[in-house]
Amino acid sequence: MGLERQKIQMRLAFPEEDRSEAPGAPGEGTEGTMAVCVPESPAVGESLMEEVCERENLKQALKRVRANRGSPGVDGMKVQELLGYLKEHWPDIREQLLQGTYNPQPVKRVEIPKAGGGVRLLGIPTVLDRFIQQGVLQVLQQHWDRSFSEHSYGFRPGRSAHQAVAQAQRISPRAAAGWWTSTWNSSSTGCTTTSY
Predict the structure, then answer these.
(1) What is the pTM of this model?
(2) In a 3-state reduction of DSSP, which class is residue 191?
(3) Model pLDDT for residues 109-163, shown as the tens digit of each residue
(4) Neighbours of 105 (CB within 10 A)
(5) Please, which residues bridge with residue 8 across strands?
(6) What are phi and psi of 193, to 5 degrees?
(7) 97 contacts 53 by C-beta, under 8 angstroms
(8) Higher pLDDT pick, 196 / 52
(9) What average pLDDT does this structure show over 52-74?
(10) Burial of 131: CB neighbours in 10 Å, binned 0-12, 13-18, 19+
C-alpha cells in the first residue's frame, strides 16, 4: 500500500479533533445521558456473588444449561449428571464462590473441520463451569442491561441484528434503501458521497 494512501486512510479513520462519542445526526437518535464510571467497592462484588448464589437465579441457570445441552468438558460430566453433582457438592462450591477461591476447570479444546478445509478451534467448558457462568451472566445482565442505550442491539437478550436494521430503516429510510452511496475517488484525497 502506497504511503499517500496510508496517510489518506489515517485521516479518514482518525479525525484530528478529540471526540468522546460518535457523532450523531442532528436532532435524531441523540441521547441525553452518558454512562458514569464509578469505582467498585469489594462490598459490591460480594453482594453480586450472593445474588449469583441465590436459589431462584441458580434454578434458572440450571434450566438454561439443560436447554443448551452441550458436550462434556475435560471432566467428562454430562448435563444430565449436573443436578446430582450439585446436590452433593453445592455447599462447598457456594463457599468457594463467596470466598473468591473457586477455580474453573481447564477448557476442553476440540477441532471442528471446516467445509473449505482447515479446522475451527472450539473450547468446551465443564458443565459445572457453564452453570456458574450462566448464573453470573444472569445477575450481571440485570444490573448492566438497563444502563445501555435503548438503541443498542449488540449481544443483548431479546434483541437482534434484524431489529437493528429495522430500526435504522425507520430512522432513515432513504439511507437504508441505498439512496446514498459512498464511493472511493482515487484521484482525490477522500470519500465522495453521491445521492441518487
Answers:
(1) 0.58
(2) strand
(3) 999 999 999 999 999 999 999 999 999 999 988 877 666 667 677 666 777 788 8
(4) 14
(5) none
(6) -100, 130
(7) yes
(8) 52
(9) 95
(10) buried
Q: What is the pLDDT of residues 36-54, one digit of tens each?
A: 555 545 445 568 999 999 9
7 dihedral zone (left: phi>0; alpha: psi -120 to 50; beta): alpha
Helix (H, G, I), strand (E, B) or coil at 180: strand
CA atoms within 13 A on the CB side of 65: 30
Cα–Cα distance, 93 to 132 (Å, whole number): 10
| Alpha carbon distance 41, 61 (integer Å) | 26
Distance between first and last Cα of the chain: 32
- Cβ atoms of residues 119 and 113 within 8 Å: yes
DSSP 187: T
**Which grid coordinates belong to 67?**
436447554
State the DSSP string of 14-81. Answer: S-SS--SS----TTSS--S------PPPHHHHHHHHHHHTSHHHHHHHHHHHHHH-----TT---GGG
